[in-house]
Amino acid sequence: MEKRRLGRSNLMVPPFCLGGNVFGWTADEHMSFRILDALVEAGCNFIDTADVYSRWVPGHEGGESEAIIGKWMKARGNRDQIIIATKVGSEMGPSKKGLSKARIMAAVEESLKRLQTTYIDLYQSHRDDADTPQEETLSAYADLVASGKVRVIGASNFTAARLKEALDISARMGLPRYESLQPLYNLSDRAEFERELRPLCLDNEVGVIPYYGLASGFLTGKYRSEKDFGKSVRGANMAKYLNDRGLRILSALDEIALHHNASPAQVALAWLMAQPGIAAPIASATKAEQLTELIGATRLQLDKAALDQLAKASVAAT
């Protein structure tokens, strides 16, 4: 499978990243193992998670996703073949949040323990922390890189201004730089990323691994009316997409999918993979069969006419 360099790092990733937010939540441990096995069987090895997954579930404390991935890697003995991306910064408790050096140093040890590994391939700032100087955060990451506990660092949910500030600090102080950005970006959610973040990432060779690559499932075509909202726990979020523009996007996806003997989800991901600067869109699956379908997007080459049709149908609001 094709590999893409993540930013200016030596990390080479496939053009698809499996989202681990569902592990321990809507996919139990047994199903999570099946999904992860299917990922490897399909020739992919890139998995994204976070320490906070899935703290939002009643009775969960966070770390459930990392723990399942760790158990799976230990059971399969394949740690050196897998690229693990995880995150720090979201609230894990009243005093366990943010990007201070103390928080990062404590959180990384907790993540390493849950993942049952000695290193993290891509360690990401989950969200910006305005209360901590970026110099402090980047210096903490420098220590982790020097110790071999982290290979590459990335940012998630940063504004263009804050990402540029971080890149400037790294260059000025000789610190590791954010080699990747994880923004919200898909056919339905285009404007915010394309306006300022995309040109910044292209100019600075920052690899982009967009999350919600399928707009929480909307771009699969699963939700076409309000009656469909009850199909999953994410259905309640579909109202914001189900409008004239959303239906126009689904219609274009349907037409192109039919022409290419593909599914709407595969077309939506293939569109993302074809966008400039994109390293690998992130999408999650709750069944192994879903994952097999999603990875089919890596084999789908959309021609200019299809790309133009999708761009026109989904033109971002100004």
From TrEMBL:
Pfam families named in the record: Aldo_ket_red
Xref: InterPro entries: AKR_Detox_Biosynth, NAD(P)_OxRdtase_dom_sf, NADP_OxRdtase_dom
Highest taxon listed in the record's lineage: Bacteria
Transmembrane segments: none
NADP-dependent oxidoreductase domain sequence ranges: 17-313
Record-given protein name: Aldo/keto reductase
